[in-house]
Structure formats: C-alpha cells, structure tokens
Amino acid sequence: MTIRFLNALLLLFSTCLILGCAKPERDIKAVPVDWVKVKAANIQTTLSFPSVISPTQEVPISFDIGGRIVALNVDVGSTFEKGDVLAVLDDESQRMRVEEIQANIDSAVAVFKEASDTLERNAELVKAGAVSQAEYDAALRLQKTSAADIQRFNAQLTTARKALKDTQLIAPYGGSVVSKNADLAQVLQASSPVFEIQIKNKARELVIHVAERYINQIVLNDTVQVTLPAKDGITLYGEITRIGSQNSALTAYPVTVSLQDVDENIKNGMSAEVNLTLAQSNSSKLRAIPRSALVAGRANTHYVWVIDPETNTTSKRQVTLENIQSAQALISHGIEQGEMVVSKGANFIDEGIEVLPLSPSMLAFSE
Hints:
Layout: H1 2-21, E1 31-33, E2 35-37, E3 39-40, E4 44-52, E5 54-55, E6 58-62, E7 67-72, E8 79-80, E9 85-89, H2 92-128, H3 133-165, E10 168-170, E11 175-180, E12 187-188, E13 193-199, E14 204-211, E15 223-228, E16 234-243, E17 252-259, E18 271-279, E19 287-290, E20 295-296, E21 302-307, E22 314-325, E23 328-333, E24 340-342, E25 355-357
C-alpha cells in the first residue's frame, strides 16, 4: 500500500510539474497606430515690400501759350470738375490782337463791298464805252484782293481767339491737384507744367522693387495683399499689372500693383506694405510628413516607420531631413509621395510588426 501511494504521489507531482512548466499560447494582435500618407511639400515664402499709395493717372497740365500768371484758382489737394478754370494768364496782348484783326476784317469787307458795287455799276458802262476797260479791271482786282484779305484775316482771327482762350487753363476732366509747379505773377513759357493733377477715379497703384532672384516667381495678374499702417493695418487686395523688364541700379525690378475702388479716406502718399507669397522653386522635390513621424538615429540620422499596405507590417526606412517647419518635417530622400508612415508613437514601433492603421489624425496631413 505504501508503494502504491508513493507511485500515485510521484505521478501527480510529475503531472503538476509538466503542467506548471508549460507556457500558455499567446494571443498576438495587431498594434493600432496613427498614420499619414506622404505628400509633396508646399512651401511658400512671404516677402514684404514697402511702398506708397499713388494715383493711377497723374498727368501734368500746362498752358499752350506763354505769359504771366494773374490767377491760380486751385491749390494742392483741391478738387475740380471738367471745364473748371484752374489758372489764368494776363490776356491784354491777346485781346488787343483780336481787336486789331477784327478791325482789319471790317476794313477788308468794306473795300470788297465797294469794289463789288463798282463792278456792278460799270458792267454795262464798259460795254457802251462810258468806262474804260482799265477802270473796270482795276475794280475787279480790288474785289479779288479784298476777298483774299478777308479770308486771310479770318484765319488770323481764329488763331488769335484761340490764343485768347488759351490764357485760361481749363480742366479737361474732373480730378484733384497733386502738386503745384508755378506761382502767381510768374512768367511761364508755353507748355511749362503748372499743376500735376490726378484724374478723378477710385483707382490707385503702388510700385515695389523686387530683387532679381525673386522676379521670375512674380506672376502677372496675381492677387496680392496690401496693408496700410496709418489705417490701423487695414488690408486691401491688389493685382499685379506690370512687371518691369529692366532692373534698376539696385538690381531690382519695378513691379506695379493696382488697387480698385479705394476709399476716399485713403490718400495718395500714404505708406503701405505689399505682401507677396512666393512658392519655393525646389519645394516640388521635397516630401512632407508630421514631425512626430520622425525618429532620431545615431550620428544625426533620421528614419521613419513605413507601413506595407498589403501586409500592414512595418519596416524601418532612413530618410534625409532637409528642414523642420513648425509641425512638419521636410524630407528630400528616403520616402515617396503616397507611402504610408506611422505618424505617432514611432519610437515604440519594432521592425516587422503587424499594425492596425487607424484614420489619419492630423488634419494638416489628412486626405
């Protein structure tokens, strides 16, 4: 009985030993991870250029004749309408010239009338021999000469009347005075500018100077942002209307920005800043991933965990980091657009493990 008991006890001990040493089979599950698709980097640079508000149509206005200024009816900042008299020259000599020519015309008309009456009276008398042919011919010549004088004097009168009218500087359109270039009692030469005027409209423009390394990134008709510091940073939007084809001494090209429907409280000469957003020329070669997807390696190396979309397994991939901008890392080599990478918890991923890709969690990189 003792032997049976010992055998049974030995069997029970062996069974317990076997069962106690056996490892339970693990239930291996895929690890859930956040992920993103690699995208092409869209890198933009914003440059600010100082400028001033200017009128779009600023032109000089002058007298067509010379003379002494006797009246200036507007000043800098004055507004006017089409047809208003802006300035006046002394017109005494022009009036005297008109009167002189008019007197010559009156005299020539009187001579013409007398010669015509003489011809009419002598037309029958010359046939009867009562008046000589020489007298008749003299009256005929006088008639023709006086007729020519009338025509010549009328042409002179037209010119003299224009000169008299030109002693008044009349606004060809409505607008405002930008600058005054002459003073009262000053003697001017013909075509000397008296005022710089701005044509009446709500359009304005700004000119900026863009360095040669950026000029090829400027696009005609692009919309740009304009801020006005004097108006609490108010923002306007303009359009690039001209790009200079020749640079200045400062190796910069003039670029014109046009503004439409500008409020009348925004005055010419106000300071402004034009903000241009330019795409970097090499950005198409870079790839963007979240900064959290990047894992630091030894000797300043970096890598990411790439997910195989068919097997949902991970593989370690070394990448070349070009730059970090805010929450994104810019990669030049190692990954391609469209590949899946782990975006969070990359430091806790192992090679070849199976993962369960969740929906992309970072809005900046989501599809």
